[in-house]
Design brief:
Mean pLDDT of chain B: 85
Order of helices and strands of chain A: HHHHHHHHHHHHHHHH
Membrane topology (chain B): Peripheral membrane protein
Number of helices of chain B: 28
Radius of gyration of chain A: 25 Å
Region (Disordered) (chain B): 671-693, 705-747
Low-confidence stretches of chain B: 1-15, 389-394
Subcellular location (chain B): Cell membrane
Biased composition (Basic and acidic residues) (chain B): 722-747
Largest sheet of chain B: 8 strands, mixed
Oligomer: heterodimer
CATH superfamily of the domain at 110-301 in chain A: MetI-like
CATH architecture of the domain at 110-301 in chain A: Orthogonal Bundle
Mean pLDDT of chain A: 82
Strand content of chain A: under 5%
Helix content of chain B: 25-40%
Shape of chain B: globular
CATH superfamily of the domain at 2-110 and 192-346 in chain B: P-loop containing nucleotide triphosphate hydrolases
Number of helices of chain A: 16
Distance between the termini of chain A: 8 Å
Helix content of chain A: over 70%
GO molecular function (chain B): ATP binding; ATP hydrolysis activity
CATH topology of the domain at 110-301 in chain A: MetI-like fold
Chain lengths: 340, 747
């Protein structure tokens, strides 16, 4: 099992690397949480419960009261303290976004929503990839194939946020078919009741759809290329002449073998979507991890930002490991190799 | 001998009962360059119970004809004509008119096919068993009963059905020979009447080829089959078939009983082809080449398609297409040629009825003394690999990473070469012969400094190559001079030439590197002269072409030129001719030999095939080294080793080489293999003592104890690493290992 062991060591090294680089680059950002809040207070003191003509003293007082400002120390001291704390599951408390609330709590509340829309998007993207990719391969060289290839290039070329804005405008505001923001209808009580669940799906449609409509072009083209190569293999021809049904050939012989080279990218696709969620959730005012991260960045909420980065890296590393370890399940040649 | 003759007579008596009839079969397809024709108006009858061989070179349309019998021509090919199947009882079936479900039933239940390339005929992600089950289900057959039948067929094919039909046995866990036999079993699962075999022994080693041919021979009678076997390898057809059809340029040019066609070939192409086939019994000087190259499917010559290459072609051949003419009235032997008699006079008969041994014309010029001043000297060289064997290197990278891990931790190293010593003199020829995995390529690559020996030394011109590379002989000799002096020509020329460079550009590189004094015009002139001297004309035009615009033979010539332009002293030629068509092999070997005269190089010539080895070394008065599991087991002058082999393995290789003569070929095909086990030893844990003892029919107790060495007292040229060579050895007193000692036929 030397392979699994080495693979885990690699993963741990990657995680630490990202935490170190993330911690220092985030702290190297110009400005800090105090400057951010100070500016906010000066511009709009009433929003923070201060009189309209708040004096500099008021503002300073408020800042001292309100901000959970870490004691003055060098960045290296802060780093070591941070490293020790995260091993105890403590990612610190939010400075600004929700001062004093443990970061872990904030993420735990937001992450499920993001994973929810990303998973929906991923499943449909995968289905679309397989359908379009294999149909294009099957009708290789026909007008259908050429038309679809152009379509897929458009699909892969248009950024998801453009589609998101278009959907928001037409389907959301003009036609009013779908809600334009939020995670669920606040009239319903969150929990295991049909109204709430239905509303959650209803609100997830547009964000997911924006991902789906732009996400499968590139992978469908790459599946098409793999499938064309597999279609030329002797075993496909042999199976056809042995009289196997086209259904069996297209599933067991064609699709499975064409997906092999794409397995890893499929498995880490979810973490890729998490990155895309930053802009997507901002557009749809969807209170998930993406929006959390966006606001944390604007506010220089260092602990929250670092924790988000760690989480996304973790998802990525986990996806890669899962892909590698499960590869043997879909390709028996690898099983013999890695388990032998 | 009698047995074989009787079978043929029987076949002839029942031969009038046609099982499948092909009329005017043509396959056309549209290409950018125009309409291509890959099967041209072929008529053929296959008789019930016979074995029909279809012979031809690559691209002659023989596989297309085989596919046409099942209406399985791949798109965009368009099959026209008639293919009629006559069931034993019932009405004739017009195969090309069948609807999909009837066609699906006919395939495999009546006519089955074993495809070329056993490596790729199974789905790599589906167990072997599923292939059987899927096929049975697709034909609504009883799965349990079918699997039972599969077990018994596998048993007849010397396979272990229980292991193969386990749920988790996949193709990559099986050897090439096993896969090929499983493919045969799979083709027989629905009890077809007619079995079409496309190059059934194509990629296999010599001994496995023989084994499969023998099994096919037995299975044909046991299962009452009619067989159609397609092969470029004439000895296989000669040994195996009752009748033969010869294809050239997408047409059948000659057809008849194997004896008639081989003893009395009546089409000039058949005669030339037979003469170009390096057969053990044909005298070396009588092996000639077929000039010119096969036509392009888009541009088939008018009239007789062979006329541009035919020595007896007249004006008539250019205009008029010859019909099949009976060669003599009593047999069904026909050939499509206007000038049969003239052809017979011009091209002498290549196959004589006298069966014989490997023959050599030896004269006094043959050197019979040890090499005095070797240019290349290997002393006790061993190579160990920690990496997975090269065969597994073809897997995707993601899998290889895992293999690397695995081999690093678990597996002992591969013993690729063990204590090999050899010497190569100036203008010398040494042919390395062995089956795949015998270490012949490793030896060659180590000899020319491409691989580092784990132990032992490689000396070029007296200098240790490794030491020179480390800079220990600076001032005396430079490593780059050693590098330049030893070159390699690869097996696959299309992979060896950069596809994005013109021929001129590829050939300019060595000149720029090594002859910096030459300017553009000098280089051009030199390349042109080299191309012309190797018969690539017009050279000016060829220089500006890309590799894909050249035929396989031309590409190989270009890579030979590229090696020669460096003016090396030693050339490793790694299976240079084995990927080429029969008619080109001799031509290229001749080219290499001519080059030797011009450039005075020495050759290390790797071949898995004794007939090519005999031709190349026999022409050059060279030596042979037979390899088994990383060791040289026998070496000496080619004529001595092949006419009087001492090592049992050499004897077995010689036995496995099929002669062209149908009578002796048929006789040998039914012989029991003298080899004790087909399982080859694990190169990671080579057996103790003699590495061949597990398979050797002559092995005795003594062979398991110590390893026999090639004794190197220097005076004896013909040496074998076998105790039997020494009449006083304790071997003769010890007990035989595998029961009674078996004879090796022809010993």
């Amino acid at each position: 099992m030397g392979y699994v062991r080495n693979r885990l060591i690699q993963a741990v090294v990657t995680m630490y690397g990202v935490i170190v680089i993330g911690f220092f680059t985030i702290h190297a950002m110009p400005g800090g949480p105090r400057e951010y809040l100070q500016r906010q207070l000066r511009q709009n003191p009433m929003q923070y419960g201060l009189p309209e003509d708040a004096t500099e003293q008021d503002i300073q007082y408020y800042l001292d009261e309100f901000l959970v400002v870490p004691p003055d120390r060098t960045i290296y001291e802060a780093f070591f303290e941070y490293m020790i704390n995260i091993h105890q599951g403590d990612f610190g408390v939010s400075y600004i976004y929700s001062p004093g609330t443990p970061v872990v709590e904030l993420i735990a509340a937001a992450a499920p929503w993001t994973i929810f829309i990303s998973s929906i998007a991923m499943v449909y993207m995968l289905v679309a990839t397989i359908l379009f990719g294999s149909f294009m391969a099957y009708y290789e060289g026909t007008k259908f194939d050429m038309g679809m290839t152009i379509g897929m290039l458009f699909n892969g070329g248009i950024p998801y946020y453009i589609v998101a804005i278009i959907l928001l405008y037409f389907v959301g505001y003009q036609l009013e078919w779908f809600p334009t923001g939020g995670r669920y209808n606040t009239e319903y009580q969150p929990g295991y009741n049909l109204d709430f669940i239905g509303s959650a799906f209803y609100h997830a449609v547009l964000p997911s759809l924006s991902f789906i409509l732009t996400g499968f072009g590139a992978s469908a083209l790459s599946l098409r290329a793999h499938a064309i190569r597999i279609l030329g293999e002797d075993y496909i021809r042999a199976a056809r002449i042995r009289g196997l049904s086209s259904y069996k050939i297209s599933t067991r012989y064609l699709a499975r073998n064409s997906l092999l080279p794409m397995w890893t990218s499929i498995m880490i696709g979810l973490s890729g979507l998490l990155g895309g969620a930053v802009i997507m959730e901002t557009i749809f005012a969807y209170q998930g991890m993406g929006l959390l991260m966006f606001e944390a960045t604007i506010a220089r909420d260092f602990p929250l930002l670092t924790a988000n980065l760690v989480l996304i890296t973790f998802m990525f590393v986990l996806g890669t490991i899962l892909a590698d370890l499960t590869y043997a399940l879909i390709d028996p040649r690898a099983e013999q190799a890695s388990m032998g | 001998m009698y047995g074989a003759t009787e079978t043929t007579t029987e076949t002839r008596e029942q031969s009038k009962d046609t099982i499948i009839e092909v009329r005017n079969a043509s396959v056309t397809f549209d290409m950018n360059r125009g309409r291509g024709r890959v099967l041209d108006d072929v008529d053929l009858d296959v008789y019930r119970g016979e074995t029909l061989g279809i012979a031809g070179e690559s691209g002659s349309g023989k596989s297309m004809l085989a596919s046409a019998l099942l209406d399985a021509v791949e798109d965009p090919g368009m099959l026209t004509g008639d293919v009629t199947y006559y069931p034993e009882d019932g009405d004739p079936i017009d195969i090309l008119e069948l609807d999909n479900s009837d066609l699906q039933r006919l395939r495999w239940e009546e006519i089955a096919m074993v495809f070329q390339g056993a490596m790729d005929s199974f789905n790599p992600t589906v167990p072997i068993k599923a292939h059987f089950v899927d096929t049975l289900e697709a034909h609504n057959a009883d799965v349990e009963e079918g699997l039972q039948r599969a077990r018994s067929i596998m048993h007849d094919l010397n396979l272990d059905p229980e292991r193969i039909l386990e749920v988790d046995t996949y193709q990559h866990e099986l050897s090439g020979g096993q896969r090929q036999r499983i493919l045969i079993a799979l083709s027989l699962i629905l009890e077809p009447e007619l079995l079409v075999l496309d190059e059934p022994t194509g990629a296999l080693d010599l001994l496995m080829q023989r084994k499969i041919l023998k099994l096919l021979h037995e299975i044909k009678d046991d299962y009452n089959l009619t067989m159609l076997i397609v092969s470029h390898d004439l000895p296989i057809i000669s040994a195996f078939a009752d009748r033969v059809g010869v294809m050239y340029a997408f047409e059948l040019v000659e057809r008849g009983d194997v004896e008639d066609v081989l003893y009395n070939p009546s089409h000039p192409y058949t005669r030339s082809l037979l003469r170009a086939t390096p057969d053990p019994q044909t005298p070396l000087d009588e092996i000639t080449t077929v000039d010119g190259s096969a036509p392009d499917p888009v541009n088939i010559p008018s009239g007789c398609t062979f006329h541009p290459r035919c020595p007896v072609a007249g004006d008539r051949c250019e205009i008029e297409e010859p019909d099949m003419v009976e060669v003599d009235d009593e047999t069904e032997h026909v050939a499509s040629c206007f000038y049969q008699e003239e052809g017979k006079e011009e091209i002498p008969a290549p196959v004589s009825k006298e069966s014989g041994d490997f023959t050599f014309e030896v004269d006094d010029t043959w050197s019979r003394h040890p090499i005095e001043d070797p240019i290349l000297e290997l002393e006790d060289v061993s190579v160990r690999y920690k990496d997975p064997p090269l065969t597994e290197r073809t897997l995707p990278d993601s899998i290889l990473e895992r293999l690397d891990e695995r081999y690093d931790i678990v597996e002992p190293p591969v013993h690729a070469l063990t204590d090999v010593s050899l010497e190569l003199g100036e203008e010398d020829v040494l042919v390395l012969v062995g089956e795949s995995g015998s270490g012949k390529s490793t030896l060659g690559r180590t000899a020319i400094g491409l691989e580092e020996p784990t132990e032992g030394s490689v000396k070029y011109d007296g200098y240790d190559v490794q030491a020179v590379e480390r800079g220990e002989h600076t001032g005396e000799i430079l490593f780059e001079d050693v590098r330049r002096a030893m070159q390699i020509i690869h097996q696959d020329p299309s992979a060896a030439l950069n596809p994005y460079r013109t021929i001129r550009s590829s050939l300019s590189q060595p000149l720029k590197r090594w002859h910096s004094d030459m300017d553009l015009n000098d280089r051009r002139a030199r390349i042109k002269q080299m191309l012309e001297s190797t018969g690539i004309r017009p050279a000016e035009e060829y220089m500006e072409r890309y590799p894909n615009e050249l035929s396989g033979g031309e590409q190989q010539r270009v890579s030979i030129i590229r090696a020669m332009l460096i003016e090396p002293n030693v050339i490793l030629s790694d299976e240079v001719v084995s990927a080429l068509d029969v008619s080109l092999r001799v031509e290229l070997m001749n080219l290499l030999l001519d080059m030797q005269d011009t450039f005075s190089t020495s050759y290390l010539f790797i071949s898995h095939n004794l007939t090519n080895a005999r031709y190349f070394a026999g022409k050059a008065n060279g030596r042979i080294a037979v390899m088994y599991l990383g060791q040289i087991v026998e070496t000496g002058p080619i004529d001595e080793v092949l006419s009087d082999p001492k090592h049992p393995y050499t004897k077995i290789l010689k036995w496995a080489t099929l002669p062209l003569d149908p009578d002796s070929a048929r006789e040998t095909i039914i012989e029991e293999s003298p080899i004790v086990t087909e399982k080859s030893p694990d190169p990671r844990n080579p057996p103790s003592g003699c590495s061949f003892h597990e398979a050797c029919p002559k092995a005795r107790e003594a062979c398991t104890q110590t390893r026999p060495k090639l004794d190197s007292d220097g005076n004896q040229l013909h040496r074998a690493a076998c105790f039997r060579d020494d009449p006083d050895h304790e071997y003769w007193q010890s007990e035989p290992l595998h029961g009674e000692e078996r004879e090796i036929p022809g010993e």
